[in-house]
User: Fold G-alpha-domain-containing protein from Coprinopsis marcescibilis.
Amino acid sequence: MARTAGSIIANDPSDPLAHVTAPPLNETAAERQERLEKETEAKQVSDGIDRDIEAEREATKARKPIKILLLGQSESGKSTTLKNFQLMYDPKAFRLEKASWRAVIQLNLVRSFHVMFDAVTRAQELNQKGENALIIPPELLRIKLRIMPLLAIENILIRRLTPEGSGEVEAVQLGASTGLAKAERTKHYIKEVAINSTKGWKEAFTGNPASPTRQSFESGDDIDWNDPKDPGRVIHECAEDMIKFWNDPIIQRLLNQQNMRMQEVSGFFLDQLDRVTAPRYIPTDDDVLRARLKTLGVTEHRFTLSTDVATGKLIGRDWRVFDVGGHRSQTAAWVPYFDDMDAIIFLAPISCFDQTLAEDLKTNRLSDSVQLWEQLVRNQLLRETNLILFLNKIDIFKAKIKSGVKLADYVVSYGNRPNDFESTVDYLRKKFAGILKEGSPLPRHFYGHLTAVTNTQSTQYILTNLQEMIMREVFVKSSLL
Ligand SMILES: Nc1nc2c(ncn2[C@@H]2O[C@H](COP(=O)(O)OP(=O)(O)OP(=O)(O)O)[C@@H](O)[C@H]2O)c(=O)[nH]1
Ligand SMILES: [Mg+2]
Assistant:
């Protein structure tokens, strides 16, 4: 450090360097003047260096990426939340992936029909045994026969979506998402495709050589519409019969009778059959958000926010969002990511209060979410990490409560409280907040949101506010360093 005009230090008897820094004896006025000028100049240089170091330190702090981890049980909405981030901060890349998502949507659609075919088969089996099930009229059976090619399409799509090493097909028990009686559930299996997101499954679809300079998916540039093997062709050919089959009152009664709520089966596109089976169908942003593809492993997604929401400065800050697989076999992979996260968004799909886990038919989904939340809250590694709770699938929850399903039948502690939306949701919110308050090793603020992450508008509003909050906290923390 440069000195201020030497005199203060030179006069300090405790300074061991006083004799070095003291002004020379017998200094003339001109010499003194020259010395002081040099000292001032040196100080200016030194101050400049100090400022540069400080600016560099600030810039490093500002450049340190902000990390968010998405957690929650399988089908809680983690990947859908990630899609909202992508749509907000990297819409171009999001839209360029639509060719891949088109295949996923087709698979979701075909899978829904597979579920319905199984329901018909079940009714026929019961009738053969002399049990009183619904009689399926021959005309409906003829329609079913005509749309059977959908099952072959399912296999083709699965093969295309899971090029070697990129995914796996699991026999997932059908019952958990349908509300079938327990004994029935274990007998029926349906394939669910899981994708190891670190492998390039999307590349299988985004490489139409006819359009090497893909600009926009909106024009359908990315799809080889002339491909004779495009599954969209068969789906379109079956469209009329698919619509008839799904809307048939017997099918609807059958599904009701078997307690199968198709609207709750992930990737529900049956209410949009006209559009989704069209010959040149291109998924909308909302379709991509509703498409269901199970995650395996952990993926990191990077976004750059050009404005620091805390300070309003333009800085180009990196955000990293980590999406994980929520299936029980995947949860061991979460822990290494606990270190160094700025926030965790935990999704609890509260609409599943009357369902069990696909991987463990004895465990209620809501109580599984509560347990996971409790474990996170109490985890010492996370004691300084912001935990943000999304009580998700609020749209399905609302409809379910309205249709008369009773929370108290599944959550005994709910007792005699009224079974309306406000009371039920308030109870669940307080339950999660109470766990946070009691279980946190250090005091924490409760950030709880009611969400339907398939709704981009409300979700993006929540995410923007959250980012602001996280930025502020990061800013305060780093200022204290
Ligand atoms: N209606 C409705 N559907 C939702 C909501 N959130 C997610 N979904 C749908 O639920 C399905 C599962 O969501 P994902 O985001 O794939 O779930 P995940 O947590 O990533 O599941 P894993 O990858 O298995 O861990 C998808 O089809 C979503 O579109 C919601 O709030 N409302
Ligand atoms: Mg996922």
